[in-house]
Amino acid sequence: MGYQRLISCLLLLQGERRRTARELAEALEVSPRTVYRDVEALSAAGVPIHMERGAGGGIVLADDYRRAIAQFTDDELQALFATAAGPLADLGLGSHASALAKLAGALPPSQRSAVQRGRDRLLLDHNRWYRSTQPAEIVTALRAAIAADRRVRLQYRDRSGAATDRTVDPLGLVAKAGVWYLVAHEAGKGYRTFRAERIGAVERLAETFARPADFGLDAYWQSAVTAMQRLPSDTCEVTLDVRAGVIEGLVNYWNGEVVAAGGERTTMRVRYPSFEMAVIDVISHGDSVSVIAPAELREAIVERARAVLAHHAAGAHAAFGSPAAKIAATRRSCSASERQ
Length: 340
Hints:
The chain is of the alpha+beta class. The chain has four domains: about 1-70, Winged helix-like DNA-binding domain superfamily/Winged helix DNA-binding domain (Arc Repressor Mutant, subunit A), CATH 1.10.10; about 70-120, no CATH class; about 135-230, SH3 type barrels (Roll), CATH 2.30.30; about 235-315, Alpha-Beta Plaits. It contains 13 helices and twelve strands. The strands form three sheets. A five-stranded antiparallel sheet has the order 7-6-5-4-8. It has a four-stranded antiparallel sheet with strand order 10-11-9-12. The longest helix has 26 residues, at about 295-320. It is elongated and about 105 Å long. The N and C termini lie far apart (about 75 Å).
């Protein structure tokens, strides 16, 4: 579009005060005639840009106008360009990298070198280990609904697997350790947070909504994080030896981190909200998870397993009279099935 080309032209001139029409035309992939028209349009809009004729001439942007972008410190530039490793691609914002490339091209040579040095020395990877694939189509659809203040209907599945349909006002998206969350307002329930990967479908409705005047996404999220981190006194931190196939499930549901990885087994540190929850969850994974520490958890799991075995053995004895009777009943059932 025309206005985007005008901005690109300005950025190119920010980097080098004087450029020929041919240089700008090649960079912008247009004809020199179009560049001249753009220069006239920028000048008419009040931008101090003009053409100088002669052997050393070209299209020139006034120094005072260039100074604003040239005043970045090296630390500011490094902070700005380090964000290129963020999760914006999940939002369908592939243009972020090209925007930074344009900005880098507009910087003076010394600062372009500082940007490259920073990129070679600092990378921010916002994704945690074994992050599940994020639903880019869902997140992109939510971003569009949020931008238009449009109400949406979600097909949502909670942690227990229960499916529900919810009509909400989408207020913002948050990426936490590479995992996307929708912050929304649900009638009668207030502000809610939905994990994007549990959203099966998004339907953008015709109705619009008015954003709450007192709502701020950053303030809400900081408050939610503080509440989540206000852990109960019986929080249980556990060190586990984990089979590779269950790592994703652990880090998706609990506050967990990989301590050491190698081969088919991985050592993880997992924080459960209670000792009882640690017992239940570790048992549910069977022989895929072994407790390294604390020893008290191993003892509790053994006791719980014995109690479960005794309970079900007693139930089987009551139904069949004895283990031998159970085996005989099973054989009779199998023989009957073979005769049919």
